[in-house]
Amino acid sequence: MTLNELAKEYKQTKSNAILNKIFEVLSSEIKTKAQKIFYKQKFIKDKYEVEIFNKVTKKFVKAERVSTFKLCDTKKIDLEDVEQELYLLVMKLLENFDAEKPFENYLNATIKNWRPDFIRTFNFVQGLNTVNESELPEKNDKESTLDDIVIEQKEVVEIEDLFNNLTESEKKFIELKKLNLDKNQSQLAEIIGVTQQRVQQILESLKKKCNYHL
Predict the structure, then answer these.
(1) 45 inside domain
(2) Residue 24 burial (CB < 10 Å; 0-12/13-18/19+)?
(3) Of 40, 45, 185, 197, which sits most exposed with the smallest number of CB within 10 A?
């Protein structure tokens, strides 16, 4: 079946088996698109004005400039986060597209200028200039002994190292898992709105990063 036929059938049946087939068809395209967004695409960080000298009028005039960033340079997001966002986008498009029209055209038109939701949430852009999360906090509350400082620093570093190694999506997933300890992978996938295979990928990633047993 073609992608358009699969999309139309999923629209009618809401079958997870059909959804998985759609993801299989799009997996290579999603991976390629995610890599381009993560490693090559530039996003606007902020806008600012500069004054430049106009040689004709002999006056300084204001000109607008923008500073940009690439996701791969931020160290706050992983490639897998971008891939997950793309899978979620496909699911939203499957729900909203007109079944009388080709889904593939709708997908290509939407994905062309798409950018991840997390750039607009969690104050992602504003947070690019914040202090590095791995730095130890200042201890202004009381005077500590040398032993206290050594122990406290060791504990803070271990915790920071653990969570600095996680993406925002993985942190949110851990919280969701804690609230749903009785749910299996398929049930968690239904809550999040992804496939069971995607939940398994997240779990495997967590186990590799921090030996998190779920």
Answers:
(1) yes
(2) exposed
(3) 40
Expressed as residue numbers, the domain containing 126 is 1-130
| Confidence check: pLDDT of 161 > 90 | no
Extract the tokens encoding 12.
Answer: 């009618």
Identify each DSSP E strand in 85-139 by its residue range. Answer: none
DSSP secondary structure string for all residues of 124-137: TTGGGGSPPTTSPP
Confidence (pLDDT) at 7: 94
Segment 102-118 mean pLDDT = 87
Number of structural domains in the chain: 1
pLDDT tens digits, residue range 47-60? Answer: 888 888 788 888 88
> Would residue 43 count as lying in a domain?
yes
pTM for this prediction: 0.56
CA–CA separation, 153 and 125 (whole Å): 29
2 residue type, one letter: T
Backbone phi, then psi, for 166, in 5-degree steps?
A: -105, 150
For 10, left (φ over 0), alpha (ψ -120 to 50), or beta? alpha
- Length in residues, the chain: 214
